[in-house]
Amino acid sequence: MDAVNRQARPTLVSIAQELGVSRQTVSNVLNNPSVVHPRTRERVDAAIKKAGYRPSAAGKALRTQRSMAIGLRLYRAVDGINGAVMDRFLHSLAEEAQRLGYQLTLLTADDAAGEVEKLETLYRSASIDLAVLTDTGMDDTRPARLRENQVPFVTFGRPWGRIATSDHCWVDVDGAAGTAAAASWLRELGHERIGFLGWPEGSGVGDDRRAGWWATVADLPGSAGLSVAVLDDHPSAGVEGATQLVARGATAIVCASDSLALGAIGHFRTVGRLGEAEVPVVGFDDTPVARATGLSSVHQPVEQAAVDLLELAFTVLDGKTPARPQRLLEPHLVQRRLQPFAR
Amino acid sequence: MDAVNRQARPTLVSIAQELGVSRQTVSNVLNNPSVVHPRTRERVDAAIKKAGYRPSAAGKALRTQRSMAIGLRLYRAVDGINGAVMDRFLHSLAEEAQRLGYQLTLLTADDAAGEVEKLETLYRSASIDLAVLTDTGMDDTRPARLRENQVPFVTFGRPWGRIATSDHCWVDVDGAAGTAAAASWLRELGHERIGFLGWPEGSGVGDDRRAGWWATVADLPGSAGLSVAVLDDHPSAGVEGATQLVARGATAIVCASDSLALGAIGHFRTVGRLGEAEVPVVGFDDTPVARATGLSSVHQPVEQAAVDLLELAFTVLDGKTPARPQRLLEPHLVQRRLQPFAR
User: Fold this and answer.
1) B67 touching A, CB under 8 A?
2) Domains of chain A
């Protein structure tokens, strides 16, 4: 990196002085070149280039009161396998934002309070025009706090629990529809004792995924009660849960995540239940490890979520009322056969 | 999200007019409150809060010519398993940037030319102060182009090939030291026929990793020539490469990535070579899937890389000469035993 002497940075005024023209002339060359005599324009252009003058986005931001930036908290990945779906969302949001002429500004925080504070600071200083919240949790207080502080926002994830301000714009993926599709497929494969492996009640996302399984197997007597909750989202917790479910008679398992499914497959492998046919385990999130090993999984349309979220956001920023301000997107089941090396 | 009427956004002037005070008074309350009479200060403060006035970062950026933002291209993950290491780097860079009062501005691009163009535009408009390049490739033209255009930058990754401008600041991880540590460990476990599974010659990163293996096994006659290159970085390519190496007598394999290692383990499993002891396969990058399955792998200190990169960057931005402008960080080998479910 070359040293840049900050003090010597050129300004409209310094370039004007150097050339013996007015500041307005230099400004015109930048913003309204047709009003400047071609010869003058050429001279000024050359001087601007030579000086490395940066016609500041800050100036434009001051005039328009738009920073053209969107604030988003980057979560520390708790579990890299499942964190992958949020990384896909981040990529999609960055691409869609750029297509719309916006930048994505990342922030980090230790907790929800720190996130809200940081977003407020960025918004108050016009460093961002808008916040995108992700990972909406049960009784999430962030929407209410941002609204109180008049920070425009949209959320990727619906409000869960008893939340007063649930009328903000959000986009979410219908997790229940995903686990329902998974359970239906396992039924089509001939399974009647289909278990569900997830997390303890009380997490919006987890309860939603359990509900989709149950709605699909409720009429199968063999599947009644075949639901197990584990505390972690890790393959070893998946082994533990699958062991319980298989002991209780399950021949197939719908999992709340690919991490759990990876462990469930490991258990089936250990007890010699991995044949040549489809593996009777379905994961959730269609993570890279699912694609690499050939695990069937529920795929979330996060690219579409990013597009919809920014459409909602900019409609409201423009003072208009969006069509369908709350959108539940349909996931789809990716059916795979386990790679030979993973059997 | 609440509608925000952009036209009605308050300014210093509108707040001053409303209160019947001068613009300077409002500005003083924001920037130099001690000079304002407490009663006036309180009134102005209340009006600022009520109006939701945003003392603009753009104004500050105009005055200081610093945007307090760092530009970084977000690559589309080619392979999510190995993409994980870049996501770790992104998290670390965002955290370290924020600690230093900077934001990370993400951009997307289709290729190197698009990336450079976007970075130049952002720099010229003072939207970023600095660029961080990652994924440095063979004969990478980006450093030269950014230098030509006077955009300050640092790179995560050393220059590979015949590059003229290799004297810029960079931080990289010593891949050869990582594969050397992996091969040494396999020697300690008693292996004498240790193979290397990587990519065709010509990629800087791949050649570097092969060199570390070779330096460590060159005196083992049984390891001579036990190097195989595959085209993809995918577990199925790993199966293919491991099959060749095992056929040629290899009892242990150092892999250029965790994806390849995952496939190599699959091959060992298929041929019944996974016992209770340490699996004779080492991956690279210590990705989440390595942690989840118990794969030994070389861990890159990307957190340290982020800290060092920004230290170098800001030293140079401040017009000073950094100590050790080119830094090669030592990775370390994480020795694991394969989880029972993955055997």
Assistant:
1) yes
2) 7-55 (1.10.260.40), 69-173+301-330 (3.40.50.2300), 175-300+333-342 (3.40.50.2300)
